[in-house]
Design brief:
The chain is mainly α and 160 residues long. The protein has 7 helices and no strands. The protein has 2 domains: 38 residues, no CATH class; 81 residues, High mobility group box domain (DNA Binding (I), subunit A), CATH 1.10.30.10. α4 packs across α5 and α4 packs across α6. The longest helix has 31 residues. The protein starts with a helix and ends with a helix. About 6% of the residues have low confidence.
Length: 160
């Protein structure tokens, strides 16, 4: 501890350096003596200057909440989820005692990894078909939003 107190520190607060220079000028021997405040005092000074975490809000808003549009089409599931529907039915018939979705999901994931591309093709075909429908629906939705057709229909609902 004595070694650390005698060594000058690079990061000294403004008030500590000002008091050190004042004490150096007031030396009685004619020699310059530099006195450094103990770390406890500087900690107290820096803690007083920092804003307390209790003053800060716990959660910061990251932006405005996005309005969910009921008219907007939903994204279709991936090929894995179509496989999961079929696999869940088969798995529950073979293993009626297993009720945990966790166990079913693990078994389904393992089966999906071991399947060849040819086995997965039927699920990819379903998923691409649904994705094409979704893309068409999104184009129609965006066209309606740009023209303002949906806004008029929403306004009329409130006035009825």
């Amino acid at each position: 501890m004595a070694k650390n107190a005698s060594k000058p520190r690079k990061s000294v607060s403004v008030s500590a350096s000002a008091s050190a220079s004042a004490s150096a000028e007031n030396s009685t021997n004619g020699k310059m003596a530099l006195k450094v405040k103990s770390m406890e005092k500087t900690k107290k000074v820096t803690q007083q200057r920092r804003p307390k975490s209790a003053d800060k809000p716990k959660t910061t808003p990251k932006g405005k909440a996005v309005k969910l549009d009921a008219q907007k089409p939903k994204k279709p599931p991936t090929a894995f989820f179509y496989f999961l529907e079929d696999f869940r039915k088969e798995f529950q018939e073979q293993n009626p005692g297993v009720k945990s979705m966790r166990d079913i999901g693990k078994a389904c994931g393992e089966k999906w990894k071991t399947m060849t591309y040819e086995e997965k093709v039927q699920y990819y075909d379903i998923a691409t078909g649904k994705r094409a429908e979704f893309d068409r629906a999104m184009v129609d939705y965006n066209r309606r939003m740009e023209s303002g057709e949906d806004q008029e229909s929403e306004d009329s609902e409130y006035y009825e």
